[in-house]
Amino acid sequence: MPDTGSGRPSLDVLVLDGRPVESARRVEPDPGEAELATLYAHPDPADGRQTWVRANMISTLDGAATGAGGVSGGINGDADYRVFRVLRALADVVLVGAGTVRAEGYTPLSVPDGLADLRAASGRAPAIELAIVTRSGDLPEQITDVGQHPAGTVPPIVLTTSAGAARLTGYPADRVVVTGEDSVDLQAALDALADRGLVRVLAEGGPSLLGDLADGDHLDELCLTTSPLVVGGPAPRIVTSGSYLGKGGAPARLVQILHSGGSLLARWSLRADPLPAHPASGSAHR
User: Which SUPFAM superfamilies has this protein been placed in (predicted)?
Assistant: First the structure.
């Protein structure tokens, strides 16, 4: 049954193109999400780069990337989910670490309900690719058993090591990419995706993968939802690494902020060059 968008919240636009919005602007629920897709258009790769890597993460007010259950579903909400669907529809490939695949129960990806036309209009292929980063090749059965994959999906691309590839006996060989001997070389992994025409990359975690992407200067953009919750506990941050990132961290520039029900949905650029400007006019509801 098509997704009608009912029950989805309106989103107030507070900051656009790095500047506060002077007059009220609201993005109302829309089954086709045309206006939201304009706000979140996935840029082409910057000069000298083969991919544009956008991360999409959520955090509580006290910096937790998960709730008490150890998954992000414990802290997200309808506003976050609305943007999440559009980001997936606009991506060539979703990049995720094997630990997150196991924790969050990932399966091969289907296009979000009602967004196939949006995806086609954006020039994306009919199927959303899923690429999994795994050093060991240890993946759950819902990934490795191709016979279980939902109709209309494609087997995930596995970005792994020589040892990891050896463990994946029986998995389609053309979907396994060896990117290093003992560890996954993320530059080689992104180059391999680009070679397949998958240049608009949406990274969905986990925190260790995002830490490696940021540390290697592979991360171009961060879409971060701040959930109006304080949870405490031992939850990870959205980015983890063994040491502080070089040169004092990766500087970010605010692109936009949307708001709904206390949730703040920010878009940050990690590149010096500005993102393409949004049209001055549009179908925003006031």
Answer: Dihydrofolate reductase-like
- In three-state secondary structure terms, 35 is helix
The Cβ-side half-sphere exposure at 19, using a 13 Å CA radius, reads 8
Report how far apart, in Å, the C-alpha atoms of 224 and of each of 28, 133, 147, 170, 205 are. Answer: 20, 21, 35, 38, 12
67-238+245-269 falls under which CATH superfamily? Dihydrofolate Reductase, subunit A (3.40.430.10)
Helix (H) or strand (E) holding 117: helix 116-121
| Burial tier of 104 (Cβ tally within 10 Å: 0-12, 13-18, 19+) | middle
**For residue range 125-180, what is the model confidence (pLDDT) as tens digits?**
999 999 999 999 999 999 999 999 999 999 999 999 999 999 999 999 999 999 99
Cα–Cα separations (whole angstroms), residue 29 to 80, 221, 240, 245: 13, 25, 34, 39
**d(C-alpha 178, C-alpha 185), whole Å:** 9
Phi and psi for 89 in degrees, rounded to 5?
A: -65, -25
Q: Using alpha carbons only, what angle is made at residue 225 by residues 219 and 230, rounded to the nearest 5 degrees?
A: 125
Residue 232 phi/psi, 5-degree rounding, is: 60, -150
Asked whether the beta carbons of 141 and 168 are under 8 A apart, the reply is no
Task: Note if the bond before 206 is cis, omega within 30 degrees.
Answer: yes
